[in-house]
Each structure stands twice: as C-alpha cells, then as structure tokens.
Amino acid sequence: MVNYSGLPSPLSIFSAYASMSASIMLFQTMVNQVFPHQVQDYIFSRIRHYFKPLSSTTTLVIEERDGMSSNEIYEAAEIYLYDKISPEIDVFKLSKQSKEKKLRVNFAKSWKTTDIFEGVEVIWRFVSEECKKTLTFPGHGNFDNDIFVSEKRHFELSFDKKYKDKVLNCYMPFVLKEANVIKAEKKVVKLHTLGCSSSYSSAQFWDSINFEHPSTFDTLAMDAGLKKAIIEDLDRFLRRKEFYKKVGKVWKRGYLLYGPPGTGKSSLIAAMANYLKFDIFDLELANVKRDSDLKKLLLRTTNKSILVIEDIDCSMELPDRRNTASLPIHADARRPRDQQFTLAGLLNFIDGLWSSCGDERVIIFTTNNKDKIDPALLRPGRMDMHIHMSYLTIEGFTVLAKNYLKVHDHQNWQFKEIQELIESVQVTPAEVAEELIKSDNAKICLERLVKFLKRKRMKNEETEEDGSHVLELFTTKRIKSFDNKMNSVEVI
Ligand SMILES: Nc1ncnc2c1ncn2[C@@H]1O[C@H](COP(=O)(O)OP(=O)(O)OP(=O)(O)O)[C@@H](O)[C@H]1O
Ligand SMILES: [Mg+2]
Predict the structure, then answer these.
(1) For 170, 368, 441, 457, which has the most beta carbons within 10 A of its beta carbon?
(2) In percent, how much of the chain has pLDDT > 70?
(3) How far apart, in whole angstroms, are the C-alpha atoms of residue 158 and residue 178?
C-alpha cells in the first residue's frame, strides 16, 4: 500500500509491524516448546547480538594483571588518571591503612571521566568486580570451606571507531609518557609486603603502603668512604643500561649486607630506596609456602624496584648449609618435597627467569652472620657487592651527634671522652641512637651516653674476668674490635 507521495502509509507500516510481531511471537513459542531452557537462552542471545544496532564505538579493556605480572598500561593509566579524580564532582573512594600517614583517594566503582587528545574525545571508566572463590581444606576427617574474596579491576577506554589507530599509536604512548613524568615528579616510594587473603587461603599477593622511612645517606652513621662507594655504585648502575645490553648481562645489581644487629642494614636499604626512588619488595621467605608461590610473587615485582630478603641465614633452618645447599629452605615435614624450595633454586630463578623479565632490579640480602650463609650466595658473580656494617666508629658517631643533637665535635668537651670510649667498646649505632633521643638537651644526652658507654665497658671487663669465658671473649674482642670497627665494602 503506497500513497501518492511514494512513502509507505501509516496503515501499511502498522500492518507490517503487526505481522512481524506475530511471526516473532510464533517463533518464540516454537523455540520455547522445542528446546530446553539453556538452549533457548543461547538462541535468543545470538539473535539479540545479530540484530542490535551497529555501534560506532570501540572499547579497549585494560586489565590490572597480565597473567602473572602486573600490566604496565594499567599502572600508567592509574597514575595518569589519578589527577583527574575530582572530589567536587565525582564519588571517590577514600581509604587509609593503619600504617599510612595520609588518606588515600582512589577510583570509586564505575568512576568515569572524559579526556580530549588532539581533538579526539575518549571516555575512561574504572570497573571493579568482586570475585568469590571457595577453597576447600581437609580438616579433621572432614573438609573446611573458606571463601576467598578478591577484587578484579580494569579500565575501559571508549572512543569513536574511526580514531582507533590514533588512540593506539599516539594516545596510549602519550599516556605512558605522561605517567612516567608524573611518577618522576612526585615519586612516592612504596613498600610491598606479603599479604594473604585469610589464614587458610594459600593465595598470596603483594600488599603495598607508602614507604616513609626517613633514612638517607646523610643520616647514616657510616664511614664516608663507604657511603661514597655505594652511591657511586648505584649511580653507575643507573647509567649503564646500554652497557648491560651490549655485554648481554641482565640489568640488575645484587648487594649482601652483613653485620651485627643494630648496625644499620635495614637503614641502609631504606636510604638506598629513598636515593634511587625505587619501590621495596620485602620478601619474607618464612611466609612463602611453596616454590610455585615464590616464583609467582617474584614475577609480580615491578621494574625499578629493590627486592629485599632479610636475615637469609635465619630463613634457612638447617644447622650447616655448607653441605646441604640443595636442601629446602623450609624443611617443613608436612609439605611434599616438591613443594618446598631451596636457596640454590631461588638464586637460579632470580639470576635467570626473574631478572630477564624486568629492568633496573636491585636485590639485597642481609644477614647477621656471614659465616652461616649458604656458599651459593657468596659465589662470585652472585652478589655484586658485600657490604660490612660494623659497630659504631668515631666517624659514625659524629654523624649521629650532628643529626640527633645538632652538635659538632669542636663544640663539645665530652666528645673526646666519648671518642675514646667508642674506640674501646663495641657499641652499635642503634644503642647510641637510643641514648641520644632520651632528652632534648644535648648536654644531658652526652652525659648519659658517657655513663652508658662506661657501664658497657665495665660489663665487658667483668665478663672477661670470668675465667670460663676469658679465652673466647678475649679472642672475639681483640679480633672483632679490629675487624668489626671497620665498615668495609668488597666488590665481587
Ligand atoms: N648506621 C646507622 N646509622 C644511623 N642510624 C642507625 C644505624 N644503625 C642503626 N641505626 C638506628 O638503629 C635502628 C635500628 O637499626 P637497623 O634496623 O637499621 O639495624 P639492622 O642492622 O637492620 O639490625 P637487624 O640485624 O636487627 O635487622 C635504626 O632505626 C636507626 O635509628
Ligand atoms: Mg634489619
């Protein structure tokens, strides 16, 4: 039925629509009668898919994780978009972890913003979904269920299809570059520690907070020559990207810090992280359950980071590691042998696969007792530098006095006495630092320190007079007072 203008009349449109609706209803009834529910759903979803209006928009999904590793584009987008969170207009997420000083503003669920790049409009949307997984653990004869909840996050980037090339080839590199600039400008060092979803769950992940350790090379009580050597080594490492590439070596540097408790090993790690502006990944081997978990965790560390494994001698529970290098670090009888891991395995993985998956990696091991650690760690080529953190020296004390009390040696008569005492007593920077914060008054602090050092010296002398220990302590003291009073660095 066509009217004189050549257009279909309203009546013809209505009758066509009515007959189409009737056919659809007939088809629907037929499908409902013939097919089971699941098949019906599938048929209707396919029909909807084919008959939906053609979209002119493309959407890129940028997930937080790319398999086992973090996705660099997601991280860049997070940094780039962070400044676009506007508390006045949008709903935003506010959080604070107990160890953190500042509030943390973050993207709320379904947060959305528009960005314009060279005249092209793109829309960013933050999507976060909760995933619940039920894990079953064998209990006493029965099975305990534990629900493990994790968050899956991604960004969706939508834009007009015709700008696909421009977005992929120009906008995305722009976002990556901008993120690097922002990161360098207000680089906040992060401390990543091991987290676990629940006491039963085996899933382990890195949990991060802002790292606000005040230690720097200026505040470290250490011989100036050693400090200079470490700083120069770090600078050389950063500069040598091309060199490492040319010689076919992985761009990583390993340090072994050893010395008695309280001599500043952890403080030096903090100073290095603050100097390099690298994140710290603090790996407590005692909390890692399986070899496969360890590998996953290592692969989830990022570039420009420091992997720290403290007290490596204590992570190895076996009495003598020299003959047992292939025995597991965790000799846990409840676990099958293939699920345990060895130091040799860990080192091979770090040297091999892990290092080749990233750039600008620093790895630091610490120990109180270098003699007790596995020879595998001391092998040439393993750790590039062995740094001995010693008892307090006069030079170290000068740094502490300046930092804690703002006094310089020439200003104070007690300095000479303290210097003489420090030369004759083995005292750690931690012990002296503890005395120096006991009062706001520098004079009182130094007087107390003199008393403390005299008491310590007397105690040592008394112990030396106790016949049963004479030989051992004498030997230890004479040898160690020479050895341990020297910070030293050994480039391997
Ligand atoms: N060399 C140092 N320079 C400045 N402060 C220091 C130094 N060594 C120790 N301290 C002070 O003592 C505290 C404890 O030191 P730190 O944790 O760095 O020692 P450590 O060698 O890592 O000890 P442990 O072997 O027990 O882990 C620090 O927070 C700092 O205040
Ligand atoms: Mg420490």
Answers:
(1) 368
(2) 69
(3) 19
Distance of CA 266 from the midpoint of ligand 2 (Å): 4
Pocket mutation for ligand 1, best pick of 230, 256, 266 (most atoms within 8 Å of C-beta):
266
Parallel, antiparallel, or unpaired: how do β-strands 279-282 and 305-309 relate?
Answer: parallel
pLDDT digits (tens, 9 = 90+) for 417-449: 898 899 999 999 999 999 999 998 988 999 999
- Kindly indicate the confidence band of residue 1, based on its pLDDT and cuts at 50, 70 and 90: very low
Closest ligand to 216 CA? Answer: 1
CA of 265 to the centre of ligand 2 (A): 5
User: How many Cα atoms sit within 13 Å of 2 on the Cβ side?
Assistant: 4
pLDDT at 408 over 60: yes
Q: Which ligand is nearest to the CA of 268?
A: 1
Residue nearest to ligand 1 atom 31, measured at CA:
430
C-alpha 380 to ligand 1 mean position (Å): 28
Give me the mean pLDDT over the 102-114 stretch.
73
Atom 27 of ligand 1 has which residue's CA nearest to it?
Answer: 261
Q: Which residue has the tokens 């995305």?
A: 172
List pocket residues of ligand 1, CB cut-off 6 Å: 219-222, 261-267, 368, 389, 429-430, 433
Confidence of residue 149 (pLDDT cuts 50, 70, 90): low
Whether 282 and 308 have beta carbons less than 8 Å apart is answered as yes
**Homologous superfamily, domain 191-317+340-388:** P-loop containing nucleotide triphosphate hydrolases (3.40.50.300)
CB 195 within 8 A of CB 205: yes
Distance 252 CA to ligand 1 centre (A): 25
| Alpha carbon 214 to its chain's center | 18
pLDDT tens readout for residues 253-294: 999 999 999 999 999 999 999 999 999 999 988 888 777 888
Q: Is the dihedral of CA 179, 181, 186, 187 positive or negative?
A: positive
Distance (angstroms) between ligand 1 centre and the Cα of 487 equals: 14
Ligand showing the shortest atom-to-Cα distance for residue 258: 1
